[in-house]
Amino acid sequence: MIFVLSGPSGSGKTTLRDLLLKDKSVKNKFVKSVSFSTRPRRPGEKEGRDYFFVSQGEFCRLKRARKILEWTKYLGYYYGTKKELVEDALKEGKDVLLCLDFKGMRRVKKIYPKKTKTIFIVPPSIQELHKRIKGRSLETKDEEVGERVNLAKRELENISLYDFTLRNVNLKQAVKGLKDIVLKRSVV
Q1: What is the DSSP letter of 47?
Q2: In the chain, how many domains are there?
Q3: Tens digit of pLDDT for each residue in 110-157?
Q4: What gap in Å lies between CA 115 and CA 87, rounded to an integer?
Q5: Residues 6 or more apart from 78 whose CB is under 8 A from it?
């Protein structure tokens, strides 16, 4: 199965994914997808762990070569899922966890309609989301924070198109909720 986690920037989808993958009962059943990105690396991020950092030219070459399953442009940077990673995991009988935007979710669901379950991570409130985005990095400009919050409002309009929604108010409870979803739905 492919589990797609979506939600606004700052909703906690990447944190939830990472905490879920540390859980002993699910850790060996899932493959974490690492995306390509053209944005600059943030402090603490590692190549191959957080993203495969590539130039825009390299990203376009990978896209033309059909090495990218789905892609999006977000705030001027390209992001895309490594196609080979997903296909190899499915062949090996492992589940895949993807963190994608709405467009990426729709594309993966179209390619793998019977193998994809979608989960939308809902932030506690727009105010909390603003605080999380602002607190994420001191380098985040106010203009970018505003763009991300406005995009979050638009993303929330598509919530009914997801198989599951999960409100991330309390991190521990949200991880438990995510674990319940993936364990109950990981059998085809």
Answers
A1: B
A2: 1
A3: 999 999 999 999 887 767 766 766 666 555 566 676 777 777 778 878
A4: 12
A5: 36, 37, 38, 56, 59, 71, 72
